[in-house]
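Question (not urgent): is this output format expected?
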Amino acid sequence: MNMSMTRAFLIVIAAYILAGAAALGTGIWLHAQQPIVIVGLADLAATIVIFIFSVLTNNSSMYDPYWSVAPVPIALFWLLQPGSDGFANPRHVLIFVLLCLWAIRLTTNWALQWRGLGHEDWRYRDIRKQTGFFYWPVSFLGIHLMPTLLVFLGSLALWPTLSDRHTQLTWLDGVGAGDVDGGNPRRDGGYPDAPVSQQARIGAAGDSAGFVVGLAPSELLW
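Got this back:
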């Protein structure tokens, strides 16, 4: 890895550390609110930090890893709720481990194909050309905020299971777990010239929803 790529990844890592700190600070500040309010506003705070870095680097692809990174701290928050028995519950462990493996897979796919701060998703470049002066407001609403909302809504399916100390493993969980990584079509992750089609960004919100649906089949069937 050359120095420019090292610097680029360090900037991304710094951005996501600060985003995590913003989310944590928001959660502490709003600790008396309902859990769903805390998660939603903490998610918004983290998104705003990433957007600031997108503007500073002039590259909206700073947001691309957010699709796969955000569900992990959201799930951890649900696990730490008073009604949950956290990692003492085998079903909670299964869900969280599979979620982390899913997140690692998508984030790694993005990292392998990203070529630095000068590399922006071609769809974002098209939006930039079409919107001109209004690109950054459009970027915030369409490239940053809307995907955050989609991932947040997809992650809500984790709430009833990870917050419940009485939930138990069933055969349906085995079916859902087997479907987490199976049968996923390869997707163009915004890099049409890549030698291998990627899953890193496009369709990841659908993957998020599908992932949590697959891991909470009992609740959804009821």
